[in-house]
Design goal:
Helix content is 27%, strand content 21%. By secondary structure, the protein is α+β, with helices and mostly antiparallel strands. It folds into 2 domains: 1-30; 63-196, no CATH class. Strands 3-4-5-6 form a 4-stranded mixed sheet. Strands 1-2 form a two-stranded antiparallel sheet. It has a two-stranded antiparallel ribbon with strand order 7-8. Helix 2 (89-97) runs antiparallel to helix 4. It is globular and about 80 Å long.
Amino acid sequence: MTRSPRGRHSRSIAALAYGVLFALGVSACGLGVDASPQLVNPKQVPFGLLHPSTPTTSPEILGQYATIYLQGPQRLVAVSRDVPAPVTAARVLTALGQGPTSAQAAEGLQSPISTAAPLTLWRLGATSVTVNLAKAFTTLAGENQAVAVAQLVYTLTALPGIASVGIRIDGKKAKVPTGKGTLSGGPLDRADYATLAPI
């Protein structure tokens, strides 16, 4: 059976009208919501959806602030230091070993413990840490040794859950000066260096 030209013409007009209405709907409202999945021309997808941008900085690289303690004119001074996230005892030790910034040094802050860098984490316990110091620590004068260990103790016990610090020098157990003028093999806590506590 041959279809009449008039019928074909009517269907063509209907298809064209549907296409115009669809295009108007897309341009007015973006991509519409269909009852069933539809194949969409990529040129009609809003810019950026086909190729979403990726973050330039991953969460692992973002820094966090930790508190380290430097030597002030008479007592320790707490300063903030940017360290990689997450904040760990090992990363805080690295920051402490770097000493004061140039601006902090200009303000008179010092860091005797930096003489004994690298400061390495020897053992991490439930509530305590043991730190290994370079042999250069023994070249510090007695008073500076006490300040240096006080820096370690205050810095590490500022971390959640850490209450005391043990010291090794060049991998060997050692007795170090306390703020009370005595020698101790540890574990050491803030009470041992109360005379150097920040005001």
